[in-house]
Amino acid sequence: MLSFDFDYYRPKTLQEAVGLFQNADRNGKKPMYISGATELLTLGRINLAFTEAAIDLKDIVEGNVMQFEQGYLVLGANLTLTKIEEANLFPLLTNTSSNIADHTARGKITLGGNICGQIFYREAVLPFLLADSQVVIVGPEGVTVKPINEIFNKQLKLKKGEFLIQVATDDRYIHAPFISIKRRQQWETGYPLITVAALKIDGEVRTALSGLCPFPFRSKKMEAALNNHELSVKARIQSALAEVPSPILNDVEGSSEYRLFVLQNLLEDVLGAFD
């Protein structure tokens, strides 16, 4: 049970959703956009999330699309991870997101909820960072399309009143060779220690990571090191490890030293899969 009450709205259009947010904000109600609502329920129970006006986006048509359009795969932010997994239109995304939580939870967690959430794993964003995907954002200024690698820095940088409605990915990345590996310290559906997603495009390996730092990321400096074929594989990996952003997580799932050890082995697996 949540310890607070809130007004609940279920708009049918993009404009209605933005209008409801603005109106609630003017009335000091600390509005929040939701679709799966899993994070509100989970974090709200431990007082880490709060709202007085929940605006549920799940009935908005644009957020439920799953189609190829002009050479791009367009996925709505309201799609559950289970629907994405079953359709399997983006195999790297399927492989990465199908290991998030358990099947029951994935039937409620939405693509947008995972990308924009507060929980720092957010593995579903990794394939999109690798594929230079475009994000479709809706807010008071209308609808805008932006490269995800320009607007995602530790988290999706949304302005007040904005929400993610779609992610579009160029078809050529959809069919690129890939690998996705998740390492856990505990049980099969427990929180991950580290997740690495990688693909090879234009002869170079791209990698994105979750669970190493308190945010998911793609590092071009790490990629440059991994693709430096003048060095041995061992030296390439050591150079990449030197470019890991900070801080490195140190928690009950694993120490920072152990995480770096696991990452070293994961990078060996990645390069072995593509070299």
Task: List descriptors.
275 residues, alpha+beta, Uridine Diphospho-n-acetylenolpyruvylglucosamine Reductase, domain 2, Uridine Diphospho-n-acetylenolpyruvylglucosamine Reductase, domain 3, Enolase-like, domain 1, 3 domains, 5-stranded antiparallel sheet, 4-stranded antiparallel sheet, 14 strands, 33% helix
Please characterize this protein's 3D structure.
The protein folds into 3 domains: 50 residues, Uridine Diphospho-n-acetylenolpyruvylglucosamine Reductase, domain 2; 113 residues, Uridine Diphospho-n-acetylenolpyruvylglucosamine Reductase, domain 3; 99 residues, 2-Layer Sandwich (Enolase-like, domain 1), CATH 3.30.390.50. The protein is α+β, with helices and mostly antiparallel strands. The protein is 33% helix and 25% strand. A 5-stranded antiparallel beta sheet has the order 4-5-10-6-7. Helix 3 crosses helix 4. The longest helix is centred in the last third of the chain and has 19 residues. It is built from 12 helices and 14 strands.
Task: Please give the structural blueprint.
Elements (H helix, E strand, L loop, with lengths): L6 E3 L4 H13 L4 E4 L3 H7 L8 E4 L9 E4 L2 E5 L4 H7 L3 H7 L5 H4 L4 H6 L9 H5 L3 E6 L2 E6 H4 E2 L1 E2 L6 E8 H4 L3 E7 L7 E10 L2 E7 L6 E2 L1 H7 L6 H9 L14 H19 L1
Parallel strand pairs: 1-3, 2-3
Antiparallel strand pairs: 4-5, 5-10, 6-7, 6-10, 8-9, 11-12, 12-13, 13-14
